[in-house]
Amino acid sequence: MSIGKLVSFDSSRGFGFIRPEDGGPDVFVHVNDIGLDEDELRQGRVFEFDMTEGDRGPKAVNLSVAGGQPSPPPPHKTKHRSGSGQLNAAEHKRLITELLLDASPALTAGEILTIRDRLTVFAEQHGWLDA
């Protein structure tokens, strides 16, 4: 399994490219090979994927949002809070990931995961998250 950030996606043509976090050339991704709805392919989002050799080089298949987290619905439709008014750890991680992607698209997947995990531990230590 590889991890990388979607650097481009042309929805009218059905393809784009993922930049692997461990370096190397960008990996081709086609809408027919991803296993996700096309609307989940947003530039800057970090994905886990399997890599295979396509006709013209490496090709990403079986995409999932990095960290095994479910893909978030659009922000204006999301109900994030539990009954106590606090986020649970999974909701917090997802929101932090989206915030980091929006704030700094140049962050690598590894950097995002490290920052996100440290912020989650910090929030848990201060009682800011639902158990």
Automatic annotation (TrEMBL):
Q: Quote the protein name from its UniProt record.
A: Putative cold-shock DNA-binding protein
**Ranges in a coiled coil:** none
Q: Which Pfam families match?
A: CSD
The domain of life for this entry's organism is: Bacteria
Which Gene3D superfamilies does this one have? Nucleic acid-binding proteins
Asked if DNA-binding is a keyword of the record, the answer is yes
Q: Does the keyword Repeat apply?
A: no
Q: Which InterPro entries match?
A: Cold_shock_domain, CSD, CSP_DNA-bd, NA-bd_OB-fold
Annotated CSD domain ranges read: 1-65
* PROSITE patterns per the UniProt record, alphabetical: CSD_2
Disordered as annotated region, ranges: 52-88
Q: Which GO terms describe its molecular function?
A: DNA binding
Q: Which organism is it from?
A: Nocardia tenerifensis
Keyword tags: DNA-binding
Q: Which PANTHER family match?
A: COLD SHOCK DOMAIN CONTAINING PROTEINS (PTHR11544)
